[in-house]
Amino acid sequence: MRVLGIETSCDETGVAVYDSAAGLMAHAVYSQIAIHAQYGGVVPELASRDHVRKTLPLIREVMDTAGLSAGAIDGVAYTAGPGLIGALLVGSALGRSLAWAWGVPAIGVHHMEGHLLAPLLEDPAPPFPFVALLVSGGHTQLVDVEGVGRYRILGESLDDAAGEAFDKTAKILDLPYPGGPELARLAERGDPRRFRFPRPMTDRPGLDFSFSGLKTFALNTLRTTLPDAADPAQTRADIARAFEEAVVETLVIKCRRALQATGRQRLILAGGVSANRRLRERMNAAITAAGAETFYPRPALCTDNGAMIAYAGWQRLRAGQHEPLCFAPRARWAMESLPALEPRTLDNN
Ligand code: KG4
Ligand code: ZN
Description:
Strand order of the largest sheet: 3-2-1-4-5
CATH superfamily of the largest domain: ATPase, nucleotide binding domain
Shape: globular
Bound molecules: 5'-O-[(R)-(carboxyoxy)(hydroxy)phosphoryl]adenosine, zinc ion
Number of helices: 11
C-alpha cells in the first residue's frame, strides 16, 4: 500500500510518499522561516496563505522524485489537527479532494500521533510497547504506548511546552525565530558551570512538567549579570547553555521515572525538540545506563514533516479506517480520544 502524506499544521509544508513494501519513497519539507522571521514568530494567516501556494507544487515535486503518477497512490493522509486551524484547512481540503479525485480512501491524521510513530520509520524500529517522550513546540507529553491508538498520557506540561520554552528564552536572548535551534547553537559556546538553573518539578513525585519558570529565570539572570558583564556575548551563551542543561536534565529525570513506573524497556523521543543534540546524547547515555533502550528519528523526521503523516495514515488506512467526504480539522484534539487499532506485529501488510 502506498500513501501520500500532507502536513500543514503550522509553519512547514511537508509532503511524502510512504510505501509499505519499499518504505519512504520520497519526502520534502518547505519551511516558512523566511516569511515569519521578520515578525519574530508564526503569523497564522501568512502561514495559511503560504500553504495554499506551496502544497500542490510540493506534492508534484515529491511524486516526480518518487517516479510516481497519480494512479500509483492507494490512499491520502493529511494532518487534521491539532494546529493552526487555517493552516490545517489547507492540507485537509487538498488531501481530501485529491483522494476523492483519485478514487482512493483518505485519512485525517493526529499531528502528535504522527510524531509518536515517526521512530517506526527508522531501522531498527522500536517494537511496542514503549514509553514516548513527545517534545514539540505545542506539546510536552510522556505517553505509555501499547500499540497504534493505545495511548495513556503519563504526564504533560502544566504550562509552556519544552519547544515553547526554548523559543521564548531564545527571544529573551535576542535570537531570531525559530528560537530552539538558534539557542542550541549558541549554547555550544556556553560554559555549563557559570549558571545553574532549576530542574522544575523534579523534587516531587509525578511525571508532569513546568517549563515557564525557566524563561523567567533566564530573564532575571540576564538582567542581573548583563550590565556588569565583561563579555556580554559570552554571558548570553552561558545562559543559553544553563537553560538547555536544565531542560535536558529535567526531561531525562522524568523519562527515567516513567520507565521505572511502567516497567517498559524502551523509550522513544519525538517532536521538534528531540532534534536537540544534547538531549539525544544525554538521554541515550542515561537510559542505556538504566538498562533500557532509546530510539529517535533522524533529525529531519523529528521536526514537522510529511513522512510521519504518511506513515501514521498508512497504519490507520490498512486497519480499514477512513474519512467521509466531509472533513473537519480540529485546532485542539486529545490524542487519547483516537480509536485503538487491533494489536499487531510490525508487519507491513
Ligand atoms: O514538532 P515541531 O517541528 O513542531 C510542532 O509540532 O510544534 O517542533 C518545533 C519546536 C520549536 O519550538 C523549535 O524551537 C523546537 O521544536 N526545536 C528545537 C530544536 N529544533 C527544533 N529545540 C531545541 N533544539 C533543537 N535543535
Ligand atoms: Zn510537530
